[in-house]
Amino acid sequence: MRSILLLAALASLAVVTYAAPATAPAPAKIEAVGLRIVAEALNKDDSTRAFNWTAGTTLALRLTIPEGSVLALTSKKINSLKDDKGTDLTKGLSQFDGFPRISVDSKSFLVEVETSTLPAKGATKLTLKADLTLSVGTTKKSTTLDNVALKEGTLIKGSGIQFKITKVSKPDFGEDEMQITLHSDKPTESLAAIEFQDAQGKTLKAQRAGSSSYGDSIDIDYAFPKKTATAKIILTEWIDAKPLTIPVNLTIPLGL
Question: Which end of the chain, N or C, is more open, meaning fewer C-beta atoms within 10 Å of its C-beta?
Answer without folding.
Answer: N
